[in-house]
C-alpha cells in the first residue's frame, strides 16, 4: 500500500524539509482587509512580520477551503492508496474537520486524519515521523498508532508578550486574558483538551521562559527527550541562543529551531517563544 503524508501550513516545516520527506502541504490563509495570502505560498513569514507593523487592524486567519482539500486529495489518489493527514488542533481551527469531510467526498484514497491537538513544529514532528514510516512501507494503521503513542508524551509550552491578540482571535478565554493584562503577568500557555489555556501565571518574561526550560531540562537529564524545538515569532536570535545553550548541556539530544508563521503569528504576536519536545 502506497501511503502519502500531508499536513497543513501551520506545521511550519520548511519547504526543503517537506520536499526531502515527501510531505504534501495545504495552506491556511491570513487576511489583511480584502487581501488574502496563503501562508508559505503567497507570503513568507518575514514579509508577514514586516506587513503587520504597517496595519492598524489585526489580520484575520482562515482555514483551507474544502474545495482546495478535495482537489489535493484527488491529486494524491492518482499515485497513493492512502494519506496520513496531520493538522493543527481542532480546538482552534476547523481544518482537521474539513479534511475529514473532504476524505468522505473523494474516492480512490483512504484518508487518515490526525488531530495533533497542538500546532507549529510540534505538529511538524508528527508529520515527519509519519513520512519516515511511510518510506519504510509501514501501514497507515501502524503510522497512526505511532502518532497516538507520540501524543502521549508531546509537551508544548509557549509565552506571548501580549495576550490581546489571542483573546481577539477567540483563542483564549476573555477572563484569562483580562486577568493577565491587568496583573501584567506573562502566563506560560499550553494546550489542554485541544484549546489554549494558562499553565502557570508568572510575573516576568525571563521567569516564564526559565520555568519552561526547567521542565525541558528535567526530562533531558533523565534522557527521555527524542527531539526538541525552539519556536520564535520574528526573534530568531532568541531561539538560536536557547538552542545553543541547550545543546551545550545536552549534546546528544536533537534540537531544532522553528518559527510562528503568519497564521499562528497573527494570534501569538511578535516576540512569542515556544518550546516543544516529546519522548523517545
Structure description:
The chain is α/β, with parallel strands linked by helices and about 280 residues long. Helices cover about 40% and strands about 25% of the residues. The chain has eleven helices and 13 strands. It has a four-stranded parallel sheet with strand order 2-1-6-7, sandwiched between helices. A four-stranded mixed sheet has the order 8-13-11-12, sandwiched between helices. The protein has a three-stranded antiparallel sheet with strand order 4-3-5, with helices on one face. Helix 4 links the parallel strand 6 and strand 7. Helix 3 crosses helix 4 and helix 5 packs antiparallel against helix 6. The two termini are about 25 Å apart. The relative contact order is 0.16.
How are the SSEs ordered, and which strands pair?
Blueprint lengths: L2 E6 L6 H7 L1 E4 L2 E4 L2 E4 L6 H8 L7 E3 L3 H12 L4 E6 L7 H11 L4 E6 L4 H16 L4 H12 L3 E5 L4 H5 L5 H10 L4 E5 L2 E6 L4 H17 L3 E8 L3 H14 L4 E6 L2 H7 L4 E7 L1
Parallel strand pairs: 1-2, 1-6, 6-7, 11-12
Antiparallel strand pairs: 3-4, 3-5, 8-13, 9-10, 11-13
Helix pairs in contact: 3-4, 5-6
Amino acid at each position: 500500500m502506497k501511503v502519502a503524508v500531508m499536513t497543513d501550513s501551520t506545521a511550519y516545516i520548511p519547504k526543503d524539509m517537506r520536499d526531502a520527506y515527501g510531505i504534501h502541504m495545504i495552506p491556511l490563509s491570513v487576511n489583511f482587509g480584502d487581501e488574502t495570502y496563503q501562508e508559505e505560498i503567497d507570503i513568507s513569514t518575514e514579509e508577514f512580520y514586516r506587513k503587520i507593523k504597517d496595519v492598524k487592524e489585526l489580520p484575520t486567519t482562515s482555514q483551507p477551503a474544502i474545495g482546495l482539500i478535495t482537489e489535493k486529495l484527488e491529486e494524491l489518489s492518482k499515485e497513493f492508496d492512502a494519506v496520513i493527514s496531520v493538522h493543527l488542533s481542532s480546538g482552534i481551527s476547523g481544518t482537521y474537520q474539513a479534511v475529514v469531510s473532504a476524505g468522505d467526498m473523494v474516492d480512490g484514497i483512504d484518508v487518515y486524519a490526525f488531530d495533533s491537538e497542538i500546532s507549529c513544529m510540534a505538529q511538524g514532528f508528527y508529520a515527519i515521523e509519519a513520512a519516515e514510516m511511510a518510506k519504510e512501507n509501514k501501514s497507515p494503521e501502524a503510522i497512526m498508532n505511532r502518532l497516538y503513542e507520540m501524543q502521549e508524551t508531546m509537551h508544548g509550552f509557549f509565552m506571548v508578550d501580549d495576550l490581546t491578540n489571542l483573546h481577539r482571535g477567540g483563542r483564549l478565554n476573555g477572563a484569562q486574558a483580562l486577568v493577565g493584562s491587568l496583573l501584567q503577568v506573562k502566563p506560560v500557555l499550553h494546550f489542554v483538551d485541544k484549546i489554549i489555556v494558562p499553565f502557570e501565571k508568572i510575573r516576568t518574561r525571563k521567569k516564564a521562559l526559565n520555568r519552561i526550560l526547567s521542565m525541558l531540562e528535567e526530562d533531558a537529564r533523565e534522557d527521555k527527550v527524542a527531539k526538541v524545538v525552539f519556536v520564535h515569532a520574528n526573534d530568531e536570535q532568541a531561539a538560536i541562543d536557547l538552542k545553543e545553550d541547550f545543546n551545550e548541556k545536552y549534546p546528544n539530544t536533537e534540537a531544532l529551531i522553528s518559527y510562528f508563521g503568519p497564521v499562528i503569528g497573527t494570534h501569538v504576536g511578535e516576540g512569542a517563544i515556544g518550546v516543544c519536545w516529546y519522548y523517545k
